[in-house]
Specification:
With about 90 residues, this protein is an all-beta fold. Helices cover about 0% and strands about 15% of the residues. It has no helices and four strands. It has strands at about 20, 35, 40, 55-60. The chain has a two-stranded antiparallel sheet. A two-stranded antiparallel sheet has the order 2-4. The termini are far apart.
């Protein structure tokens, strides 16, 4: 048996853009900002609607800063010298 009947496939309709999930927020540095991003999971096709919004968000944050005051740091003692990297002429320790 041979197949001689031909049918026209229906034209596919428009496909709307779809965003992927947001990433986790980046680490907040003292007095700085955090950022997160997302990528397009499925681009708009055949006249479908474009993705609304942006691919990146930034928000201010203030983590463990102790207010607006500058803070002095304290250095610990030096460690012992390491062994020399060469037995003669030009090593470092």
């Amino acid at each position: 048996a041979s197949c001689t009947e031909q049918r026209r496939c229906p034209e596919p309709g428009p496909v709307a853009c779809e965003w992927g999930d947001w990433s986790m927020w980046t680490v907040c540095l003292c007095g700085g900002s955090q950022e997160r991003s997302r990528a397009i999971r499925r681009p708009a096709q055949r006249g479908g609607s474009l993705c609304d919004g942006g691919s990146r968000e930034i928000r201010p944050c203030n983590s463990n800063c102790g207010g607006d005051r500058a803070q002095n740091c304290t250095m610990g003692d030096w460690s012992q010298w390491s062994d020399c990297t060469q037995s003669c002429s030009g090593g470092q320790r």
